[in-house]
Amino acid sequence: MWKFWKKEINDSESEVTADLSNDNTQSVSLTKLIIYSFIAISLILYFIGMYWSSEPAPFVVENEQAYQVVNGEKKLIVGYTTLATTEKIANTLLTKPGGYLSNDITPPSIFLDNIPSWEFGVLVQVRDMASVLRNHMARSQSQSMENEFLKEAEPLFNNDHTLWIWPDAQKKYEKAIQQLAAFRGELGKVENSQAQFYTRADNLNAWLSLVEKRLGGLSQRLTASVGQERVNTDLSGDSAAHQSTESASSLTVKTPWMQIDNNFYEARGACWALIHMLKAIQVDFETVLAKKNAKTSLAQIIRELEATQESVWSPIILNGSGFGLMANHSLVMASYISRANAGLIDLRELLSKG
What we know:
The protein is mostly helical and 354 residues long. 59% of the residues lie in helices and 5% in strands. The strands form two sheets. A two-stranded antiparallel ribbon has the order 1-2. The chain has a two-stranded antiparallel ribbon with strand order 3-4. α2 (80-95) packs antiparallel against α7.
């Protein structure tokens, strides 16, 4: 009887041990599954993020469709190329790899900051062009009526670029692009004399003055990557001028290290957009530029900006001390932008001359 009872106890203990062993095996297998799944998902998101972080390649500014035949003569539709180029730049924001990422709140977009900074740089240039189109290039004089299509497009482009709740930023920008396309479609129609694009030197100067300020601001932010002691030039030495609050005669300006790569890619995006816009201006304002002897100056500005689009071979944006052992990508970018900005100042002076 005792042997029989002892055998039953041993059998029960063996069953319990086997059950515990199976539970431990299942627990280890589940843990491995979770770890491997996490690693696999992380790798997938990493490679998707790398693909989405690639900047769009420059496109060819085409003007073949900018011509119409009038009485057997091929004639340029003035303004067509500028409008079509601005539309294509804005469309690139929405159709590039990953689409528009600035307002994404899901992985991997939420971990990406370089390409959203690039998008913002492009968007600012599109906004400036939409503003100048509405207030200058599509109006003959200050007392003239503004175009209804451009009146709708400009505020749509100025919506919050991080808006993701419906209607999201993409929807606003799509509507704005449609308004630009509608205005472009009306250009050149003899029966609709209300849709006009005026290639006057003062209109071009109005846009270039905005571009000059944008590039100057970008250059200042880029050079601040190493920290600078700057003289306060806010009042330009004017003894009669005042400002709202007092400020020091010298300022120490340094970009936070977390913002260095953001400033770099914002500048790259702005320059990418400007290259295409300036090439479109070459087409529509050709006669004005030729009259002012400014075609060469504009071509040199474009060449300086194209240098900002060279490949970045470093996996990170380096922030050396200028003359130190390590490179400083921000200072290199600022150098090209400053040279382009100096060219813009000269170009504006040529356009201002009678």
